[in-house]
Amino acid sequence: MLQEADVRTIIGKLKDPFLHKTLAELEAIEEIKINPEKGHVSVKVGIAKTGTGEQLNLQQQIVSLLKEAGAASVGLRFTDLPKEKAVSFTEETNESILSGQNKTTFIAIASGKGGVGKSTVSVNLSIALARLGKKVGLIDADIYGFSVPDMMGITKRPEVYGEKVIPVERFGVKVISMGFFVEDNSPVIWRGPMLGKMLNNFFHDVEWGELDYLLLDLPPGTGDIALDVHSALPACKEIIVSTPHPTAAFVAARAGAMALKTDHEIIGVIENMAYFESKITGEKEYVFGKGGGEKLAEELKVPILGKIPLQQPDWNENDFAPSVYNADHPIGQIYSEIAMKVADLI
Ligand SMILES: Nc1ncnc2c1ncn2[C@@H]1O[C@H](COP(=O)(O)OP(=O)(O)OP(=O)(O)O)[C@@H](O)[C@H]1O
């Protein structure tokens, strides 16, 4: 039968998912109890942040390692690691999502002008990728026009451990927004250099953990602010959102040109508000015109990743997220298809 020292050695090698230090180094194994008759091992472990997907992963690892080593059953409890301990380690680790070791793909979502649904697309594409089992983060980089927390129904603020900010998790997506750092929805009045600094903080000071994709909701348009943000970003794959009106597509093509000039790679176009489909007759009406998506895709020499009709999400009184489409909503299904295409492309 397993002894306490064996259990300590086996799970001591596993790492805290946020602090990237072993549980032994963190002295995070708080209690081990063994019942030799039943072969039951129960363990209490402290981690930097409980109640997350990372905790679930760690839990599975601990259970399978202990069972492999001979435990008949395993009981696990997680507690929050004392804050002082977590702080001292976050200051030491200083790993960034931009460091070469991780394999995160950055996907920027851009548009030629405001109001075409860029943020709605960023939110729902992130959630659709998470529903596919991908590890996803979302930066609301629309610094002046941030709307992501509200769209996703986020009411919490991120926790801060020493120098590190832990993103808020919602619908399986880790989210950071300028909106978390301003009081009472007040306007942001910073200019150029401050803006770059803020974005830098989003990359360096946020504890993203392991991510497959980090999506960025960019500011709309092709003006100074969009250009500043484009230039401040690491190399991204980029998706351009446009409505079907030929003029909207014409403006969106300029956003595409700006992406290319700032060394980002455009992977596709999403046509939003593509049509209205009557629930009664099934007839499609092209309220905002037709053909813009094709024109834009042709001009940028990329595929159309999807066409999203006009329709609101189903609002849920208990879990209100005004812009999130459920997985079984017709538009939620379109987002799943787009997410699969994106995952195939990258
Ligand atoms: N397919 C759709 N059907 C119905 N309403 C939509 C659709 N897509 C977006 N909307 C609505 O259109 C409005 C603008 O969308 P959103 O804020 O996502 O645009 P945006 O391009 O990010 O704007 P900006 O960059 O100016 O903030 C929102 O009220 C949103 O709910």
From TrEMBL:
Domain of life of the organism encoding this protein: Bacteria
Classification via Gene3D superfamilies: P-loop containing nucleotide triphosphate hydrolases
Binding-site residues for ATP, renumbered to this chain: 112-119
Coiled-coil ranges per UniProt: none
Matches recorded under InterPro entries: Mrp-like_CS, Mrp/NBP35_ATP-bd, NUBPL-like, P-loop_NTPase, YlxH/NBP35
UniProt keyword ATP-binding present: yes
Molecular-function GO terms, alphabetical: ATP binding
HAMAP family reported in the protein's UniProt record: Mrp_NBP35
Assembly and oligomerization: Homodimer.
Family (UniProt): Belongs to the Mrp/NBP35 ATP-binding proteins family.
Protein name: Iron-sulfur cluster carrier protein
Organism this protein belongs to: Metabacillus fastidiosus
